[in-house]
Write a structure and sequence with these properties.
Chain A is mostly helical. In chain A, about 70% of the residues lie in helices and about 0% in strands. Chain A is globular and about 55 Å long. Chain C is flat, with a radius of gyration of 25 Å. Classes of the chains: A mainly alpha, B mainly alpha, C mainly alpha, D mainly alpha. Chains C and D meet through helix 1, helix 2 and helix 3 of C and helix 2, helix 4, helix 5, helix 6 and helix 11 of D.
């Protein structure tokens, strides 16, 4: 086993364990903290995949903004949702079964697919620069790029209208 | 070298855990956390396919960036709805949000 | 390139290890005499009433929300800035348009009064 | 011969390889030792800084500062260290023990981790990654999480309130900070720290003075020092998010704040003052390190000076200043920089003319901002409130007559 493989296995196990705690911990603030660890694990996975830009963006956006926003929301609404008492609904057995079936099915499909034959090639150009060029290039992703900004604008206006009341 | 299959299985596991969270949790914010996990699993897939595919085609990373934006928008609006519900109906249990049911 | 990230990974471990040692050391060499009064929650010498969960303003949440939108949009601009040399004028204007949309969002929040600390 | 640091590391690598260790393991060991040295160096700097800052504060406030322990009070920080190490760490009732203990560690780590990418000299760089600038922003988010954890886990009203204030301030000021950082990235066409240093002919303080100013202000707010110290405003909310911390738990927050100020100095030096560059630094990295530390100290001194000169601002002022002034300003600066840069590139002007025109554009923006501010907020006459003359103390009436 090479060093990279060992790192990948550690990262994957930590991430999945953290994710399991996210969905099972009754204390919601703890769930949010575990979510931060899981998201950090995903960022480490991005580094292993040489997508370094996405790795840092993952930390900036998910941990620095989304997780913080979630903790704020948890604290705002804590009065009606105490940490004690069951946090899962009556269908949880069915949900667990469904998740398990999905995982087993996907794994089965993946092992039998040709994915194992895919090979790595060396990076020749800087992906960040390539991304920057193609995100604003008219024959690549300029429309999704501008649409994303419009979407975010709409989301901001919408959420201010919903949450903000004098 | 790590095979592409391992990344995909890792992502599948993360997705399944997220799915369980979405289906089994009572609290609306916890459900949003499950959705975040699922979106992250999708992102791992996108980036893994970029890395193991044609590197000249940046689509995998570009889509991942768009997924970030969508996730941010979803969380912003989703949590705003949760807060609004909390203030109007004093509940954030997903099952009790049945305003459109009669 | 992964060498650099290996260094960062090791640095994260070191950066967590050093303060962890610093915080655990006093537990070994320092005194340890807990008592009920010492462990009371500090509230200027008064007995604490209720739990720490004071209802706080939604305003905090609104600022975090605006920050989230701005954060992700500015992050999008980094690849644009890195690739600036190879961009035609048209692409530069795309970026400027992106920033202007951002400004429009700020103006909306401003007009709506969401930026006022009331 | 001019590069002893790399020579030593090479010698060390060869030594380990000579012992028959695997190549990968040698790499890990030498990188780990490098990381440990850089991190320890940061902490040692803090010990010196605590003395320096107290001395500066003393001088600015017309008092000697620490002067008892050792010559010029030089041993004062060591005495403080021994004291804080032997103090008890108390955990308040009802605290979330795990989060309560992790928070100070995370706060310290979030600041230390920035030093992984700071270039000390041309060849002495920890990690020369292509996303260095965003890495710094990313690491900063752990500081926010640490503050939130500390405030929440303390089970204390003041701590929670302080944490909310702190997070509101830190996330708010992150927006103009990131936009201001986009300017050097755009000018250097790279997010790598060493590329940004190499691109600075002339220094970016001349090409982008407004971005430098915005970065200075916002990073002071990120650190949470006066005038932005309302997250631990002693007179309002005791000590903010670290009210319940004692001994080394508090010490970690304290040290991380000091180190953060020093780091801000280093970042300003790297982004706007040419980092390690200077006469002879290319050939002699030791000189580069010297220049880097000198520039860092100047940045550090500036932040300390501002801290000691200005009073604390109110929370509404803090937020309004950020969202209604700094954020729009930084966006305008970014647009102008991008457009002017592209136009000059297409016109193909010389580098010195480029720098001059950029400077002029910045000054123009500054002038317009001043004009707008004058129009919006006319100079209010400072009104002098006249109080009735009241004696401070009144002698008690004699009762014997």
């Amino acid at each position: 086993m090479s060093g990279v493989e060992i790192i990948f296995i550690i990262v994957a196990i930590v991430t999945l364990l953290a994710a399991l705690f996210v969905v099972t911990t009754p204390n919601l603030v703890h769930a949010a903290l575990w979510l931060i660890l899981a998201l950090f694990g995903v960022a480490a996975t991005f580094v292993l995949l040489n997508a370094t830009f996405l790795a840092v963006v993952q930390v900036v956006v998910y941990i620095g903004a989304i997780a913080v926003l979630m903790i704020f929301a948890i604290m705002l609404t804590r009065r009606v949702m105490e940490d004690s008492g069951p946090q899962i609904n009556s269908n949880w057995i069915l949900a667990a079964l469904l998740g398990l079936v999905l995982f087993v099915g996907l794994t089965f499909v993946l092992i039998n697919s040709g994915a194992a034959n895919a090979s790595l090639s060396d990076l020749v150009v800087d992906p960040v620069e390539q991304l920057g060029k193609e995100l604003v290039s008219p024959n690549a992703y300029v429309i999704p790029f501008e649409l994303a900004s419009v979407l975010l604008l709409a989301a901001m206006i919408g959420s201010i209208v919903i949450a903000w009341k004098k | 070298m790590i095979s592409l299959t391992w990344y995909l299985i890792f992502a599948a596991a993360l997705f399944s855990i997220g799915l369980y969270g979405v289906l089994a949790r009572k609290n609306a914010i916890a459900i949003l956390m499950g959705i975040e996990l699922m979106l992250n699993a999708v992102n791992i897939n996108l980036v893994a396919f970029w890395r193991y595919g044609d590197l000249a085609n940046i689509a995998g990373q570009a889509f991942a960036v768009i997924v970030f934006a969508v996730a941010a928008a979803e969380v912003a609006v989703g949590l705003a709805l949760v807060i609004s519900l909390y203030r109007r109906r004093n509940t954030i249990v997903a099952e009790e949000i049945d305003l459109m049911k009669w | 390139m992964l060498d650099n990230w290996l260094y960062i990974g090791l640095f994260i471990i070191v950066a967590l290890f050093i303060p962890a040692v610093a915080v655990s050391l006093p537990r070994l060499i320092g005194p340890r005499k807990p008592n009920a009064i010492k462990q009371e929650i500090y509230e200027c010498g008064m007995e604490t009433v209720g739990d720490a969960w004071v209802q706080f303003k939604v305003q905090y949440y609104i600022f975090a929300l605006i920050f989230l939108i701005f954060d992700i949009e500015t992050v999008f601009l980094f690849p644009w800035a890195v690739a600036f040399d190879k961009l035609p004028l048209f692409a530069v204007m795309e970026g400027v348009l992106f920033i202007l949309i951002l400004l429009a969002g700020l103006m909306y929040a401003w007009r709506k009064g969401a930026l006022d600390w009331a | 011969m001019g590069d002893p640091i790399n020579l030593i590391s090479q010698w060390f690598n060869n030594l380990l390889l000579g012992w028959g260790l695997a190549e990968g393991l040698v790499k890990v060991i030498s990188l780990a030792i490098g990381a440990a040295i850089v991190a320890t160096l940061g902490l040692v700097t803090v010990i010196a800084l605590i003395w320096v800052e107290r001395k500066i504060a003393g001088r600015l406030q017309d008092r000697p500062g620490p002067n008892r322990a050792g010559p010029f009070g030089l041993f004062q920080p060591f005495a403080d260290m021994i004291k804080i190490f032997t103090k008890e760490i108390t955990t308040p009732d009802g605290a979330d023990k795990v989060a309560f203990n992790i928070a100070p560690i995370l706060a310290m780590a979030s600041v230390l981790m920035i030093w992984a990418v700071v270039p000390f000299a041309g060849t002495v760089v920890g990690a020369n990654i292509n996303v260095g600038v965003l890495y710094i922003v990313a690491v900063g988010s752990f500081g926010i999480v640490a503050v939130l954890m500390a405030g929440w886990s303390s089970n204390n009203k003041f701590a929670l309130l302080g944490a909310f204030r702190a997070v509101a301030q830190m996330v708010s000021y992150e927006v103009p900070m990131v936009i201001a950082l986009l300017v050097p990235v755009l000018l250097a066409r790279s997010m790598g720290m060493n590329d940004i240093v190499a691109a600075q002919t002339p220094w970016f303080i001349i090409i982008a003075p407004l971005a430098a100013l915005i970065f200075l202000i916002t990073s002071m707010a990120e650190v949470g020092r006066a005038p932005f110290d309302l997250l631990e405003a002693e007179s309002e909310i005791v000590a903010g998010f670290h009210t319940e911390y004692s001994g080394m738990g508090f010490g970690m927050f304290y040290v991380s704040e000091f180190l953060h100020v020093w780091t801000v100095g280093a970042l300003i030096a790297t982004f706007f003052f040419g980092g390690w560059s200077g006469p002879g630094a290319e050939n002699f990295p030791i000189l580069g390190i010297l220049y880097f530390y000198m520039k860092t100290f100047i940045g550090y001194f500036l932040v300390t000076w501002i801290r000691l000169s200005l009073p604390r601002i109110r929370i509404d002022q803090m937020l309004a200043f950020n969202w209604k002034f700094l954020t729009p300003l930084s966006l305008v600066v970014l647009i102008v920089t991008a457009v002017v840069d592209k136009a000059l590139e297409m016109a193909g002007v010389e580098r010195w003319a480029y720098a001059l025109i950029m400077l002029a554009a910045n000054l123009l923006i500054g002038w317009i901002v001043v004009l707008i501010l004058k129009a919006v907020e006319p100079n209010r006459k400072r009104q002098r409130v006249e109080f009735e003359h009241r004696p401070v103390a009144v002698a008690p009436k004699s009762t014997d007559s």
